[in-house]
Amino acid sequence: MSLEEKLARVVARRDELAHLMAAGRAGRDFARLAKEYADLGPVVLAIAELGKARSEADGLKVLMDDAGVDAEMRKLAESEYFAFKDKIPEMEKRVRLLLIPKDEADEKSAILEVRAGTGGEEAALFAAVLFRMYQRYAEQRGWKFQPMEMSDTGLGGLKEGIAEIAGAGVFARLKFESGVHRVQRVPVTEAGGRIHTSAATVAVLPEAEEVDLKIEDKDLRVDTYRSQGAGGQHVNVTDSAVRVTHLPTGVAVACQEEKSQHKNKAKAMKLLRSRLYEHEREKREAERAAARKSQVGSGDRSERIRTYNYPQGRVTDHRVNLTLHKLDRVLDGELDEFVEALIADDQAARLADIA
Question: What is the full DSSP assignment across 264-319?
């Protein structure tokens, strides 16, 4: 299907939606159809502006080719014509960007999971650094960062850290952080000054609401047990920790951060819902993007995505070949250059699908 045919279908669909709602035929689907109508508004406006620009350019071209037009008028028409010719490609690009299917999860809050990978205690120390990096980034953007589950090593490292990051558009900006993050540095315990390589994995899941998917009680197994680690006498006498298993998929989550069993269960359910939602979202995305050569942002954590090199003070994102020589500032939460580059790269890949 050509771009012109796609544009015509978008305009026709918005006209159809307007007719359905005006005629009172939307019924119980009114809210959904109204949202679709509103979402198509900017696209239809951009299409109209593009059509107007093309029409004016065509009119100017006719004027330029008219032998009866005096030289001064022809020169003016020529100037305006080339101004339109320069502007139209950018307008076409904007229309194509607006045609990219929206990720329904982009506006959602997110669940961040950071886990130590290969490298022992050094990997755990790096995982703690990454967890703090995302916390600082959240603070800079005015998002709420709430730890949900923490498992530390007792030596400053982090075996696993899970947090809820709440705010507008959190998932859209953090979804490309999922993957293996590699660190190269000289451990404090390394007497010979040799550089060690270790890794941590990051997963970013869109936070699912109850309306996003229905979880049946019969599909859940809830186990309680005594919390481990710090917590004082309370954890020794109360089975406050909760593990929830979704039987159809085998997905299990646990939470022991709170002293209240009820609060731990609520946090565990929030995490479970987000993991199941992400699984379904990724499955739909994979089906929709089956023809794409590159699956940027699919959540695939099978290979490294970024390297943090301490001796050289640099950070390299291997997906977009971007290297920044400001390691300290990146680890202090200055992630926007990577985020913007990854979003642009994803848009370019999606644009290729609809060109």
Answer: HHHHHHHHHHHHHHHHHHHHHHHHHTTT-S--TTS---SSEEEEEETTTTEEEETT
Question: Reduced to 3 states, what is the DSSP secondary structure of residue 112?
Answer: strand
The per-residue pLDDT for 296 is: 31
Residue 305 corresponds to which tokens in the numbers above? Answer: 């995505």
Check if the beta carbon of residue 176 is closer than 8 Å to that of residue 349: no
Cα–Cα distances in angstroms (integers) from residue 38 to residues 14, 106, 122, 340, in the given order: 9, 17, 50, 26
The pTM is what? 0.65
Q: Which of 251, 249, 253, 250 is nearest to 266 (CA)?
A: 253
The β-bridge partners of 149 are 162
> Residues, the chain, total?
355
- Share the mean pLDDT of the chain: 83
Q: What is the CA radius of gyration of the chain?
A: 26
* pLDDT tens readout for residues 304-334: 899 999 999 999 999 999 999 999 999 999 9
* Pairing of the two strands 179-185 and 304-309: parallel
Other CB atoms within a 10 A radius of the CB of residue 25 amount to 11
Q: For 12-34, how does the pLDDT look when each residue is reduced to its tens digit (9 = 90+)?
A: 888 888 888 887 776 777 777 78
- Look up tokens 């790096």; give the residue: 126
What is the distance of C-alpha 321 from the center of its chain? 19
DSSP three-state, residue 349: helix
Calculate the CA 24 to chain-centre distance: 37
Residue 166: alpha-carbon gap to chain centroid: 13
